[in-house]
Structure formats: structure tokens, C-alpha cells
Amino acid sequence: MAFLATCVLVVQVGDATHAVPARAVLDAVLEKQASLVMPARSDRMYSLTHTRVIPLGRSSISVPILMYHYIRPAPSIYTDYLGYRLTVTPGDFTAQMDWLASSGYHPVDFKDLRAYFSGVMPLPAKPVVITLDDGYADLYATAYPILQAHEFKAVAYIVTSFVGQARYVTAAQVQEMDRHGIEIASHTVDHANLSKASLYWATAQLAASKTWLENLTGHSVVDFAYPSGKYSGTAIAALQATGYDTAVTELPGTVHSRADRYLWTRERVYGGELLGDFVNSLGAVEPWVDVAGMTTTAERP
């Protein structure tokens, strides 16, 4: 009932001079919002911004999903151009996280997006999803501490057969990150190209990866990233058959809906990228509502 009241508030925002809800209704909305806060690191996010939200009911919303690979000192652009472009230095990554924090962005994960599109919980104003692909060793050694220092959520797409190998995270590290704000998601067993896979082989890759991660973390894993961004209709059918709920590509874009959840777009963060280019990649800010102040905004502060 409190969230139905939220919808009433949103409608009334456009005519706030004529209809202001009773204080009791507003208090009920905020109390209900607070009761639905997710545990651990999301507490801080909602305690600071719970009155500024993207209200429930929108079929599509602008939420940048950022794509990272390596967070490490950059290799030579002349001898390893691909590695250079896939590498964001620790200094640049820290600067980008600092900018997000100081500019009022709030990292969320796919559980939060699922809750929003299911009508369970609004999103905080200016949400962003931070994803890191492949499970390199620097995910734990470098990216994870920086994210922890900012109290940021993120999503790590893990290639299960790489876990424990040289240059990759260990199983114990995956478990630790899973317990402390990093959503663990699937990236196949061996970084397979699913765009050319048969339904049998795609299903085997997806089911084996999902089962391994679920046994490791002790909970369901339903989010996925296509290796190298390559997908097909067969791959999507295999995702649905094996119980996945979302999948991300490497196509650019920031607007997402529940209907296109197996083809969600991402914004790649390139090595050597200027901070201004990073900011521009975030796209338009989804209009949010200040429930306490009875105002709306569609502009970047």
C-alpha cells in the first residue's frame, strides 16, 4: 500500500501546487522504502538517497551498464594494443569511481534492476551498473579494494574453468567478493563463442557454469554476459532454458527494459579514455523524484 501511495505522489508532483500529500502518507512511503533496503553495502546508498528515487512503473529506464576488463598498469600501446584498450589503470579507475560518487551516482546490481522491473523496489536516483568481465586476478587485487573503499556494488562475470589458474581469481576470492557487495554472474565455462554454438553445446556451457557458481556461492546465479559480446537466437533460447534472467552484450546504449533483458547493452570503458569521455558515455540521466521535496529532475547536476 505504501508503494501505491508512492505512485500517487509521482502523479501529484506535476501539480504540486494544488495537491500535497498528508505527512502521514509520506512517512509511510519512506518507512516502507527503508524496510525493503537490501543488506550490506546498499544500506549506505539508501540511507543517504532514499527520498530521491526512480519511481516504479516505467517500462524502460536509462541506466548505464559499464564494462571493464583489466584494472592494472597499462601495457605498451605499441606492443599490445588490444591489451592496452582493455586495460583501465588503477589511477583512472579510482578517478572514475570518485567522479561517480561526487556526482551523485549510485551503483546497483542486476538484483536491484530485477526488483525494479518486478515492481518491488524503486531505484535510487542516477543508478549505474559496474561490470567486470572474465575474472582476472586484478579483479580481486585491484578493482575490489577500490570498489570497497567507495562502498560500491559491482557485478563480476566469471569464466568458471579459469578460476584458480594463473592470472585469474581463486574460488576463495570469488566467495569473499560474493559476500561483500560483488554480484557473481556467469561468463560460460571457457569463454565460448555462443553465436556459433548448437543448442546442445550452448545449453551445456550455460548449465555447467551456472551450477558451478551456484555450488560455490550457495545461491542462485541468473545473470550472464556473452563472451566477446557474441550471441544468437539459439544462445538466447539456451539462456531461457537453463534459468538465466538477464544477459548483457557489448553493444553500446544505456536504455533498458524488462522485455529486452537478454540483450542489454553496455558502455565499454576503454584504456586511456579521458574522464570527459567516460562521463559522456553515461548517457542521459533518468528523471527521478525527490519524494520529500516534491520535486522532479531530468538534468545532470
Give the helix/strand layout.
Layout: H1 2-13, H2 23-35, H3 42-49, E1 52-54, E2 60-62, E3 65-68, E4 70-71, H4 81-85, E5 87-88, H5 90-102, E6 106-107, H6 110-117, E7 123-124, E8 127-134, H7 137-150, E9 154-158, H8 171-179, E10 182-186, H9 199-217, E11 223-225, H10 233-241, E12 246-248, E13 255-257, E14 267-268, H11 275-280, E15 288-290, E16 295-297
Parallel strand pairs: 3-8, 3-14, 4-5, 6-8, 8-9, 9-10, 11-12
Antiparallel strand pairs: 1-7, 1-15, 2-13, 15-16
Give the CATH superfamily.
Glycoside hydrolase/deacetylase
CATH architecture: Alpha-Beta Barrel
Structural class: alpha/beta
> Hey, roughly how much beta strand do the residues contain?
15-25%
Helix-strand string:
HHHEEEEHEHEHEEHEHEHEHEEEHEE
What's the alpha carbon Rg, rounded to whole Å? 20 Å
Q: Low-confidence segments, ≥5 residues, pLDDT <50?
A: 1-49
Q: What is the count of helical runs?
A: 11
Give the number of DSSP strands. 16
The CATH topology label is: TIM Barrel
Integer tally of domains: 1
Mean pLDDT: 86
Distance between the termini: 32 Å
Shape: globular
